[in-house]
Design a protein that fits this description.
42% of the residues lie in helices and 24% in strands. The protein has four helices and four strands; from the N terminus they run βαββαβαα. It has a four-stranded antiparallel β-sheet. β2 and β3 form a beta hairpin. The longest helix is centred in the N-terminal third of the chain and has 14 residues.
Length: 96
């Protein structure tokens, strides 16, 4: 399944660790605090557990949105949509 990870994390070191956890999970950066990629249910659970250990649950927010490919096909990109300097060819291919 495709998974969006969106976060608002107060402290830079924690934010960097969460970004690294996302990258290590094999998903791609779409914007500074938004990642997208394909993971199975077990991998989503593992990433959620890893992130939960990193963040301050009283201050930080992290959303993991699983999405099937049919729903993803209906995603509408408006404006700049994603940071073209951050995204990889793999992410661009998802939107084509």
């Amino acid at each position: 399944m495709l998974v969006w990870v969106v976060y608002d994390i107060e402290k830079n070191p924690v934010r960097n660790k969460v970004a690294k956890a996302c990258l290590n999970a094999g998903i791609y950066r779409v914007q500074k605090s938004v990642f997208l990629g394909e993971l199975n249910a077990t991998q989503v659970d593992e990433l959620a557990l890893r992130i939960a250990k990193l963040i301050d649950e009283t201050r930080d927010s992290v959303y993991l949105f699983p999405m099937c490919k049919d729903d993803f096909a209906r995603v509408r990109l408006l404006g700049q949509a994603f940071d073209k300097e951050l995204v990889t060819d793999e992410v661009r291919a998802l939107f084509l």
